[in-house]
Every structure is written in structure tokens, then in C-alpha cells.
Specification:
It is a single chain. The chain is an alpha/beta fold. It has a single domain, classed as P-loop containing nucleotide triphosphate hydrolases (Rossmann fold), CATH 3.40.50. Helix content is 49%, strand content 14%. Strand 5 and strand 6 form a beta hairpin. Helix 1 packs across helix 8 and helix 6 packs across helix 7. Bound molecules: adenosine monophosphate.
Length: 212
């Protein structure tokens, strides 16, 4: 399977898992959240457009996200023969838009984890603004204070990992993203994975489903 979608609630570990699988098997990783945050940092037109939604914990409107994702995948598939897509689709409209193309996923992994565990993980998450390394102050703390092990930069917390914003992101997830699971279930593409336990344990479950 080379065209893979990884879904799950905020904090379920989809970005972490997608990154590991991408590096291990050389399948390019596309994170829509990362692309949006990069645009905000670089102060692009797209960044200015999406910042307000992300800061509030709301989904960015479908038309913006669909255009961005389909263009990104189209460019990438000129060079590679697959992708691991994380953070898309988050609505039925987004899922349908991708399914109508020849870039549609072959398999959709849903990482399942309860809300309280996700909130705990997110409010303890830190990232390195310089090299992008992700930490968790409980599960994977940096060796020295709040400094990146790899490059020594001061770690930061994502603004939308504030608990109030996280709760809002969950509301969006239940209302708009949950139905996407049923959509892929009907297509026979959905594989639900238990997201509890260590990164290695969850990875093993995912690789089992992918046949890797
Ligand atoms: P993530 O890094 O995947 O947690 O995404 C962070 C934020 O980016 C989300 O809370 C949304 O505001 C926005 N976002 C990312 N992917 C999508 C998407 N597929 N549809 C709408 N908004 C998105």
C-alpha cells in the first residue's frame, strides 16, 4: 500500500507515526497542519487567511484546504509513487474531493484514543521551532530543561495546544471528522488501530495493518 491516510483525534499521535513510517519506508509525508503553520510563519497570503481558524481551534474552510491538498499531492506524485497523508480529510466534502481523483488513498488508518488521554498528551507537547523535533514533557522529555536535544533551541508549545483550544478542536472532530470514518468504512478502506501505549507499540499495530 503506497497511498495512505492517517486519521485520528488531535493528540492521537498521527503526525508522529506518519513521520516514522515515512522515514523508515521512504514514503513522503504530507502534513496539512505543518504546511499551514509554515505558511503562517512565512507570513504568506495563505498563512494570513488560515491563522484565525487555527488559533480558534476551528477547521479551515474546505475550499482552501482541498485546493492546497490536491495541488500538493499532484506535485508530489510526479516524483514519488505514494504518500502518507496526515490531517486530511477532516470533513466528508474533503474526503469526497480526494476520492474523485486518481490520487485517492488505498487504505485509511484511524488511530483511536480517548479525549482525556489526548488532552493530556497535547498540553504536555512541546516542539523545537528550529528543527521541528517533537517532545512530550511526560513521555519523551528533553534531557536538559526545555531545550531541544538535537539543536539546543528553546522548546515551544503550539498555541492551539492550550486546553481551551484543544477542547474546541475536539468538538470539531466529533461533529465534522467522525463521519469521515463511516465514509471510509463503507468503502472498505478503514482500519481502526488502538492508539494507547508507547509510540513503538502503536507503530507495530499500524505496520501490521499496512503489511509492512
Ligand atoms: P494539525 O496539525 O493536523 O493538528 O492541524 C492544526 C490545525 O490546522 C487544525 O486544528 C485546523 O485548524 C487546521 N487544519 C489542518 N488540517 C485541516 C483540514 N484537513 N481541514 C481543515 N482544517 C485543517
Amino acid at each position: 500500500m503506497r497511498r495512505i491516510v492517517i486519521m485520528g483525534p488531535p493528540g492521537s499521535g498521527k503526525g508522529t507515526q506518519a513521520k516514522i513510517i515515512s522515514e523508515k519506508y521512504g514514503i513522503p509525508h504530507v502534513s496539512i497542519g505543518d504546511i499551514l503553520r509554515d505558511n503562517i510563519l512565512r507570513k504568506t497570503e495563505l498563512g494570513a487567511l488560515v491563522k484565525q481558524y487555527i488559533d480558534r481551534g476551528e477547521l479551515v474552510p474546505d475550499d482552501i484546504i482541498i485546493e492546497l491538498t490536491l495541488n500538493t499531492l499532484r506535485d508530489l506524485l510526479k516524483e514519488f509513487n505514494g504518500y502518507i497523508l496526515d490531517g486530511y480529510p477532516r470533513t466528508i466534502t474533503q474526503a469526497e474531493a480526494l476520492e474523485q481523483t486518481d490520487m485517492k488513498p488505498e487504505i485509511v488508518i484511524d488511530i483511536m484514543l480517548n479525549e482525556e488521554e489526548c488532552v493530556k498528551r497535547l498540553t504536555n507537547r512541546r516542539y523545537c521551532p528550529k528543527c521541528g523535533e517533537i517532545y512530550n514533557m511526560i513521555l519523551k522529555p528533553p534531557k536538559v530543561d526545555e531545550l531541544c536535544d538535537k539543536c539546543g533551541s528553546k522548546l515551544m508549545m503550539r498555541e492551539d495546544d492550550d486546553e481551551n483550544v484543544v477542547r474546541k478542536r475536539f468538538k470539531e472532530y466529533y461533529v465534522k471528522t467522525k463521519p469521515v470514518m463511516d465514509y471510509y468504512e463503507r468503502l472498505g478502506k478503514l482500519r481502526v488501530i488502538d492508539g494507547s501505549g508507547s509510540v513503538e507499540e502503536v507503530l507495530k499495530r499500524i505496520l501490521g495493518e499496512l503489511g509492512l
